[in-house]
């Protein structure tokens, strides 16, 4: 079994700290709603300017939705996220794959909620009364991604996105698009389309 390397130890493997670090854009927060009613917390795509990296003075900027899973940082390109909500996850329906932990109600539609922790060998946790869910869509279908904590939307220069070190297990690297420095830690960028495809969701 391949040993997972702590994200903090990876700092010795990545390139020197860039002059410009990722800057966290303020994220509008709303009070936690009643469990049975899904409420939109944020629509990240409004910040993305038609889902394309902006160019300013020949500097390409990427917008990343940054979040926490099992005390480690991960990110997804903002163009892949439709919205972010706080809501209750209903009980899992019999017959669904193990990585589908339940369903939520979003504007009258039942949306499956996935946990991606097993793709990165992270420990699962009990489901809370209200959870933060990233909403994504593919092939006209909508899916929810369970996260532990939302950190915000960050701006980062494309050139500061580093290649994934080979210290990761091969089966994890398949879902990684790159890594970025976030303060004294690093964040892994997830290829959410690859995750959904390999989960046989799309």
Highlighted features:
seven-stranded mixed beta sheet, OB fold (Dihydrolipoamide Acetyltransferase, E2P), 202 residues, six-stranded mixed beta sheet, globular, disordered N terminus, mainly beta
Can you describe this structure?
The chain has 202 residues and is mainly β. The protein has a single domain (8-198), classed as CheA-289, Domain 4 (OB fold (Dihydrolipoamide Acetyltransferase, E2P), Beta Barrel), CATH 2.40.50. Helices cover 5% and strands 41% of the residues. It is built from 2 helices and 13 strands; from the N terminus they run βββββββββββαββα. The protein has helices at residues 170-173, 192-198; strands spanning 23-25, 39-42, 54-56, 59-69, 72-77, 83-87, 100-106, 109-114, 131-138, 141-147, 149-157, 176-182, 185-190. Strands 1, 3, 4, 5, 11, 12 and 13 form a 7-stranded mixed β-sheet that branches. Strand 3 (54-56) and strand 4 (59-69) form a beta hairpin. The model is unreliable at 1-21 (pLDDT under 50).
Strand count: 13
Query: What is the C-level CATH assignment?
Result: Mainly Beta
Q: What is the averaged pLDDT score?
A: 76
- Label the CATH architecture: Beta Barrel
What CATH calls the topology is OB fold (Dihydrolipoamide Acetyltransferase, E2P)
* Largest sheet: number of strands, sense, barrel closure: 7 strands, mixed
> How much strand?
35-45%
**Could you state the order of secondary-structure elements as H and E?**
EEEEEEEEEEEHEEH
- Rg from C-alpha positions? 17 Å
Number of helices: 2
Structural class estimated from helices and strands:
mainly beta
Shape type: globular
Q: What is the H level of CATH, i.e. the homologous superfamily?
A: CheA-289, Domain 4
